[in-house]
Write a structure and sequence with these properties.
The protein is of the alpha+beta class. The protein contains 6 helices and 12 strands. The strands form 2 sheets. An 8-stranded mixed sheet has the order 2-3-4-1-5-8-7-6. Strands 10-9-11-12 form a 4-stranded mixed sheet, with no helix packed on it. The radius of gyration is 16 Å and the shape is globular.
Length: about 210
């Protein structure tokens, strides 16, 4: 169990403009991710150190986005102005979560221009929609060299999160101490005044700490 990535729903001026602001703040280049046909979304990727990454994601005008919880979550967050949507934990086995949540993981995929395909299974988006402080979970499948953090070598490190919520609540959701996936990322938990969830993420960059 380890933290894998953070997801940022694009703001009202769209995927490219939102990504350009974030990549400029971090002093690095973003790369085009691609379309998630099962979810009705597309993303841009900013690789980070320590096998992590940041994705900026946009909902598409596509029937899948109305049906898939991930597409619904992106649309809802963007409709409120965009911003941090959630965080994701990678695990080797999703079956304990499937059993506890009473539903099966769903497949995800996106194709590269050269025909290679990134594939995974994920679960927990409905939990994130109901309580945005909790992470969703995935298991990567296929070629490990296609992990989005490996698009290029990055010196930008995710150093801390500020989350409106409760460590105890997230520990309950994960079934293991929340400190386990966040062992190399500091977290400040604050009482939610409104909707819980990620309030900000701080990165260590070549120009010092940057908080988004």
């Amino acid at each position: 169990m380890r933290m894998d990535h953070v997801s940022y729903a694009c703001e009202q001026d769209g995927l490219m403009a939102t990504t350009e602001r974030i990549s400029a703040a971090l002093g690095v280049d973003a790369v085009r991710g691609g379309v998630h046909p099962r979810f009705g979304t597309r993303n841009m990727i900013i690789p980070l150190a320590d096998h992590k990454y940041l994705e900026v994601v946009e909902v598409l005008d596509h029937p899948a986005s109305d049906k898939a919880p991930f597409g619904q979550a992106v649309r809802a967050r963007s409709a409120t102005g965009g911003g941090w949507m959630g965080w994701c934990v990678a695990v080797d086995d999703l079956s304990p979560f499937e059993e506890r949540l009473g539903r099966s993981a769903v497949p995800g995929n996106r194709k590269f221009p050269d025909g290679r395909e990134l594939v995974w299974q994920q679960i927990g988006i409905l939990g994130l929609i109901a309580d945005p402080q909790v992470p969703y979970l995935l298991r990567w499948e296929g070629d490990p060299s296609l992990h989005p953090s490996l698009v290029y070598a990055s010196d930008v490190k995710m150093s801390s999160l500020t989350i409106a919520g409760s460590a105890a609540r997230v520990t309950e959701w994960l079934g293991e101490p929340v400190e386990k996936p966040l062992e190399d990322v500091a977290v400040q938990w604050v009482a939610p005044h409104g909707v819980p969830g990620i309030m900000s993420v701080t990165f260590e960059t070549a120009n010092g700490a940057v908080t988004i």
